[in-house]
């Protein structure tokens, strides 16, 4: 390119000064004048624009591109100072000037960056589909250029550089790829907004991969995004991909403070005091991974009454070798992160926990222990003082880990002890909660505690059935567990009452099933209470009948409720028919002894 007159070095100097004001000095601006440096930069850019208009050398095409660079810089400047309309005008002018030459090496990078910024601008206006159009256009242009030319194009800044200052091809390529990575990053967010979740995940994965390849990331932000992506893969039961995201997140997070290339980073790194919170967030994603893996394995292994099916277990173990071979092939096809320098660390991290379904207690316990370690790590930051909701969610996940591990345990006594651990962690939390402020959490804990006591009671009954004769200790234990379960179910049902303590005539949809299941379980629990006092037994049977009858009557009155509790309703109808006759026989027996 020919120089535009004798004043060209001064023009370049002004342009460089404007960029320094925007990128560096603006970070030091006082809160009272947050855009002081941006406004100074704008003034300099306008000066350069005037000088450029007066220039006669360089040729029309060269001048058009330089004007486009200035329109771009002014567009970004106005957008940064929240003047979106002016920003849009400048960015549109930039693309208009470049339109005839957008596929040339001189223009393609600038055109893509202008499209990116128009995409961001329309996102800020909540016009997501318009943003999508600009960003997809930028993506298509990148792909077309790489197919038709592929040589490293000029960086926009080079249009205001002397020949000897121009960038190397390597640096040009790096900056061009970074601009395209931004395109993909913003497209991932756009697809997320448009609920195109699968596409959003795909673009997020590609963005993260490219950021590693081109060293364009900050460790904490990258790790956080990778951990978030893992949760999408979990929802699809893609455990290998989820584990890979989390292993990479943990490895990259450990680089915090040693930024490979800070000037190329895509996001502003959080303050150092945020590190413990970010670390705890990644730990929580690991907990979800372990929990989901165990719960998915349980679904595969359970029979129609929710117990472990030994035949299914043997069948799955036989299948595993073949599946592992296929998964390994699939892994090689999968989009995995990692440059050579971090690959080994990520693989070592992955080896700490399986990504295949655990099929017996030993395998389940290994996954459980990893999850439990991350529970401790997450609780170090999310303590009950200051993070009540987060802390309780972590404890609930810990309880859920014990619950699913108990499924794999064949020994009923040991299984009972696992459920007791759940009680010990949940009851103190529940006791300290004020339902006025934490009603939803209180209800969750009431139901979980009730279900846990109920499960323990069932296990004690099963243990008792193996004995020749029930001893008084076992009877006492069964009754105590049943009464605790009833207590928590009743507390949950009481929480649904209005201020006048009246139970709702029609239940809200979100509490319909939990309320009906609570009523059904209370009915069953009263039937399980063991007493030698026939009068007390009759009272228990009567209470049991009342709860079963409630379910049947409610579903007759509100037929739309039937689909939510079909199994419980069938059993309730059966009991409503059977119980009166049983009670009559007991009454006759009592009166014959009188």
TrEMBL record:
Biological processes per GO annotation: central nervous system projection neuron axonogenesis; microtubule cytoskeleton organization; mitochondrion transport along microtubule; neuron projection maintenance
One GO molecular-function entry: protein sequestering activity
Cytoplasm as UniProt keyword: yes
Alphabetized SUPFAM superfamilies for the sequence: TPR-like
Gene3D superfamilies linked to this entry: Tetratricopeptide repeat domain
Cellular compartments annotated: Cytoplasm, Cytoskeleton
One GO cellular component term: cytoskeleton
One Pfam match: KBP_C
Keyword Cytoplasm recorded: yes
Keywords assigned: Cytoplasm, Cytoskeleton
Record function comment: Activator of KIF1B plus-end-directed microtubule motor activity. Required for organization of axonal microtubules, and axonal outgrowth and maintenance during peripheral and central nervous system development.
Protein family membership: Belongs to the KIF-binding protein family.
UniProt-recorded name of the protein: KIF-binding protein
Source organism of the structure: Taeniopygia guttata
């Amino acid at each position: 390119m020919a120089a535009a007159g004798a004043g060209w070095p001064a023009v370049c100097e002004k342009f460089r000064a404007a960029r320094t004001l925007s990128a560096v000095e603006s970070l030091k601006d006082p809160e009272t004048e947050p855009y002081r440096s941006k406004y100074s930069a704008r003034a300099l850019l306008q000066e350069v624009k005037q000088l450029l208009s007066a220039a006669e050398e360089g040729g029309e095409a060269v001048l058009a591109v330089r004007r486009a660079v200035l329109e771009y810089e002014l567009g970004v400047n106005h957008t940064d100072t929240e003047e979106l309309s002016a920003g849009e005008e400048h960015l549109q002018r930039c693309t208009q000037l470049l339109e005839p030459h957008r596929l040339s090496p001189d223009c393609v990078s600038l055109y893509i960056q202008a499209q990116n910024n128009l995409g961001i601008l329309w996102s800020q206006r909540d016009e997501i589909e318009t943003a999508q159009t600009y960003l997809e256009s930028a993506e298509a242009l990148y792909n077309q250029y790489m197919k038709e030319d592929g040589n490293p194009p000029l960086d926009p800044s080079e249009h205001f550089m002397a020949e000897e200052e121009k960038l190397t091809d390597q640096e040009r390529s790096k900056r061009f790829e970074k601009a395209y990575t931004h395109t993909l990053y913003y497209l991932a967010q756009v697809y997320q907004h448009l609920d195109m979740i699968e596409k959003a995940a795909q673009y997020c994965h590609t963005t993260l991969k490219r950021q590693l390849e081109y060293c364009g990331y900050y460790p904490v932000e990258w790790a956080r995004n990778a951990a978030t992506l893992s949760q999408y893969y979990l929802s699809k039961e893609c455990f290998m991909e989820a584990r890979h995201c989390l292993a990479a997140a943990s490895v990259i997070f450990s680089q915090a403070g040693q930024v490979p290339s800070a000037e190329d980073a895509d996001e502003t790194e959080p303050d150092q005091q945020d590190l413990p919170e970010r670390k705890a967030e990644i730990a929580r994603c690991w907990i979800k991974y372990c929990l989901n893996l165990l719960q998915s394995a349980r679904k595969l292994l359970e029979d129609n009454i929710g117990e472990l099916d030994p035949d299914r277990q043997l069948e799955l173990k036989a299948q595993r070798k073949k599946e592992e071979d296929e998964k390994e092939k699939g892994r090689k096809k999968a989009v995995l992160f990692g440059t050579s320098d971090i690959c080994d660390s990520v693989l070592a991290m992955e080896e700490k926990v399986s990504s295949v379904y655990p099929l017996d207690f030993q395998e389940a316990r290994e996954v459980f222990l990893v999850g439990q370690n991350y529970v401790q790590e997450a609780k170090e930051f999310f303590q009950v003082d200051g993070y009540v909701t987060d802390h309780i969610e972590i404890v609930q996940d810990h309880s859920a880990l014990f619950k699913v591990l108990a499924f794999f345990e064949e020994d009923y006594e040991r299984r009972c002890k696992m459920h007791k651990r759940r009680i010990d962690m949940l009851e103190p939390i529940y006791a300290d909660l004020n339902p006025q402020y934490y009603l939803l959490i209180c209800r969750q804990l009431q139901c979980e505690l009730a279900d846990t006591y109920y499960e323990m009671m069932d296990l004690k009954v099963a243990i008792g059935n193996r004995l020749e004769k029930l001893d008084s200790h076992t009877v006492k234990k069964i009754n105590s567990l049943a009464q605790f379960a009833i207590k928590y179910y009743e507390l949950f049902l009481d929480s649904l009452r209005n201020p006048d303590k009246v139970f709702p005539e029609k239940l809200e949809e979100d509490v319909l099933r939990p309320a009906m299941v609570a009523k059904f379980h209370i009915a069953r629990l009263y039937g399980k209470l063991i007493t030698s006092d026939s009068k007390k037994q009759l009272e228990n049977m009567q209470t049991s009948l009342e709860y079963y009858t409630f379910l049947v009557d409610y579903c007759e009155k509100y037929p739309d409720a039937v689909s939510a509790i079909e199994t419980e309703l069938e059993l309730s109808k059966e009991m409503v028919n059977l119980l009166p006759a049983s009670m009559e026989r007991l009454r006759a027996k009592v009166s014959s002894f009188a």
